[in-house]
Amino acid sequence: xxxxxxxxxxxxxxxxxxxxxxxxxxxxxxxxxxxxxxxxxxxxxxxxxxxxxxxxxxxxxxxxxxxxxxxxxxxxxxxxxxxxxxxxxxxxxxxxxxxxxxxxxxxxxxxxxxxxxxxxxxxxxxxxxxxxxxxxxxxxxxxxxxxxxxxxxxxxxxxxxxxxxxxxxxxxxxxxxxxxxxxxxxxxxxxxxxxxxxxxxxxxxxxxx
Length: 209
Description:
2 domains; 4 helices
């Protein structure tokens, strides 16, 4: 998710190692405007440059969380699961990654639920497990432990950038979580436009009940 407070909304270009990718420069602002009934939280992991032609645009990259205003946010935690905030550029791969965990109270149902999400680190070598990904999983579980009381529903989701056999899922299983993506028999989480191997990246895990 991108946010550029000093730029107008519209398209920009992200450049990295010969790649040029179109990006909505103020996607956070655009989604916030489309969801007026939601509280919006932006959680930056790094600040770097996008481009409008040859003109540089300073932008923040990170997570966004949108919560319907009918739900009360009764606790939350935000922290890095890999690296630390990069204020002077996107950083070297694998770049900083954070996670956001919130505890919501549903007045309609009279109970609370804890939800955590993460955009896992990207390694140019692929999605196989590394020591950094193992530490990332442990950091995510630790962050959840700060908020989740253990006796109510827990949801953990995101683009983890790992394969289904990752040790990440064994770490999360200790919290009683099981994955709905692989557990439901889905064979990938990519569209037909994605031509590379390793077609899993996005996951949704829940506790029973």
